[in-house]
Amino acid sequence: MKKILSALVALAFVFGSSSAVVAAGETVGDSGRTWAIPNDAERGMHIQRFLDAPPGVPASYLIDFQKYQSNAYVDPTCKSAEDSNCTADSLGFNSLLPVCGTISSVYCIEDFGVLNTSGESSKGSFSRYFPNQALNEFQASERLKLPFGATGSIFDLPSAPHDGGTLYYVSALTSGTLNKSTGADLQSLNVEIYPVKLESGDSAIQEIDTGMSKETNGGSGHPVGQWRFASFGFSGTSNCVAGSAKERLCAQRYAFPAGKKFYIKLKLQNRPKGWLHGRIAKPEVSFTEISSGYSFYMAANPVAVPVVYKMYRYPEMPQALKDEYDLKTGGYKPEVALRTPNPSGAPEGCGRSVCTDDPMTRNVIIAPLPSSKFGMDQLKLWLPFVQDKATTMLGTWSVRTLDENETQNASQCFKNGDKGVTGIVTTNATQYSAGPPSLNKSEGTLEYQVSAPHFTTKGDEFLGTYDLIMRSDVARCVYGFTSAPIRAELSIVNDQGNQKVATEIIGEKNGWLYLSAGGFTYSSPTIKVKLEQDAPPPAPEPTPTPSASSKPAAKAVTITCVKGKTSKKVTAVKPKCPAGFKKK
After folding, report:
1. What is the Cα–Cα distance from 408 to 457, expressed in whole angstroms?
2. What share of the chain is helix, strand, coil (3-state, %, to 5)?
């Protein structure tokens, strides 16, 4: 019998909502072919990029890292857990899950599609894998709970047409460690959905597919013969989610159609755990225990995420920005100061060129992670130089497990994955706080910092979205609450310290706490959530148990005792007749 471990239901679904009418052809973010990263590769360029990640999804692999670290000129890849080429007891794996069927029925994509405003689903049909086979494909092991190493899946979804057609690229990436004795440990889950069109002729598509391979010509900057990870670059003309070297095809990213809620359902042998972060809005999520492991379901709307990109030729770079970056490396000074000095004395971190004292001899790309504090600080520096405006608005649908670096300062309550996923936070901000919301003990608030341009590419005011869903027991752990119902208050504190209460939907249902905000403006607001609960009612005073000394006195009883013609009356609590007398 199936046992529901947990269930999160979108707030709009739980509490009711009305959907706005979406005009035909309206998109999430900028319409048409997705913006391509410029190929600014000349010397003397300083490039600043605020983007979730470069184009391209990670590839599948099963690797003997012990061998790779000891000799990078020996093939470290494995075809299976039993591959004699891999001798270490522990192997690392990345697995893009296949569609449920002949390849796998226990670790796979079970369903993908779209929901209409009434909640009815329209299922996509599987079209093909892209590319047809993973460069480092490896076999699954149900016994060890190791998934199959596939490639991304392309589905046809006619009920959600976009500017490039009806195809969608779906990536369900699981990562972890395989212990050959005890089995695989699922450490992260990353799910992404992209509207795509298969296009040809892009110069970013190289001679070999994404994955681990041996350097053949030194063009990547690695010595010939060395094994290294390689992926498709960017040509300045396309944004390839994935590519097929043999077919010379690019899965070009397109904008999402507006007003659509996309869903995906996975089968997993291991349970996802920890904290999730999403580039989605109003998620509906459930984790269900099934006979083969776990069923994971998520439905959500895509969001438009602002990207900021700016290139200066160093002589033209404003002095106010030059002062914030290291002359030798081009790196952000606070970050450079934390680097461990190179024993050789040579500077590090110079991007696509050698570090020198002359900025005109280098080409440097500064691309902080979206959850980096240094990224948050730098975005504030750069916004005045881009008129506080996005370079492009990328329609995005993704959710992933936070890594250890992002959660290292989080409450242990958030990090404890014994019961699976502890919570999910979603936002459409360019930069955001690392990890789950942090607890401000003095104010008793859970706080989350976000940052983004104030304006879209069209000059409209950019409005923020934020969803926080966490297990009720996690919230009670953070606050030390009892089992009494929790109340929540959500506020937005802008750059000037003024509070603006955003559109919010708040509730607690089936062991989960839901909070949602929307309609607030950027550039760098702080989202504050205050959780409270009433003190438990005083326990009723117990009824005192009478003691022996407080019992009411027993009543005396009189009896008549006779002996022949003689009679006596005896009065006592428990009267007895004298010897020779009988009770009359």
Report:
1. 35
2. 10, 45, 45
Q: Dihedral of CA 475/399/191/379: which sign?
A: negative
Is the CB of residue 308 less than 8 Å from the CB of residue 382?
yes
State the DSSP string of 308-322.
EEEEEEGGGS-HHHH
Nearest to 142 by CA among 172, 116, 114, 103: 103
Q: Is the bond preceding 525 in cis, omega lying within 30 degrees of 0?
A: no
**Residue 402 neighbours by CB distance under 10 Å:** 20
pLDDT of residue 523: 87
Residue 340's alpha-carbon distances to 326, 348, 355, 464, in angstroms, are: 15, 9, 16, 38
Provide the 3-class DSSP secondary structure of residue 229. strand
**Cα–Cα dist 537/555, whole Å:** 43
Residue 136's pLDDT is what? 97
CA–CA dist 102, 17 (Å, integer): 41
Can you give the pTM of this predicted structure? Answer: 0.85
User: Which has the closest alpha carbon to 190: 205, 204, 203, 174?
Assistant: 174
On the question of pLDDT at 61 being above 70, the answer is yes
Angle at the Cα of 184 from the Cα atoms of 133 and 286, rounded to 5 degrees = 85
User: Is residue 205 scored above 50 in pLDDT?
Assistant: yes
Higher-pLDDT residue of 422, 509: 422
Question: What are the DSSP E strand ranges found in 53-165?
Answer: 61-63, 90-96, 108-115, 121-123, 125-130, 152-156
Share of the chain above pLDDT 70, in %: 87
Residues in the chain: 584
What is the Cα–Cα distance from 516 to 11, expressed in whole angstroms? 8
Q: What is the pLDDT of residue 177?
A: 96
Residue that is written with structure tokens 């948050």 in the block: 376
Burial of 533 (0-12, 13-18, 19+ CB in 10 A): middle
Q: How confident is the model at residue 6 (pLDDT cuts 50, 70, 90)?
A: very low
Task: Tell me the H-state helices in 327-470.
Answer: 333-336, 373-382, 404-407, 412-415
- Name the band, by pLDDT with cuts 50, 70 and 90, for residue 536: low
Question: pLDDT by residue (tens digit) across 30-53?
Answer: 999 999 999 998 999 999 999 998
93-130 burial code (b ≥16 CB/10 A, e <16): bbbbbbbbeebbebbbbbbbbbbeeeeebeebebbbbb
Q: What are phi and psi of 190, to 5 degrees?
A: -135, 115
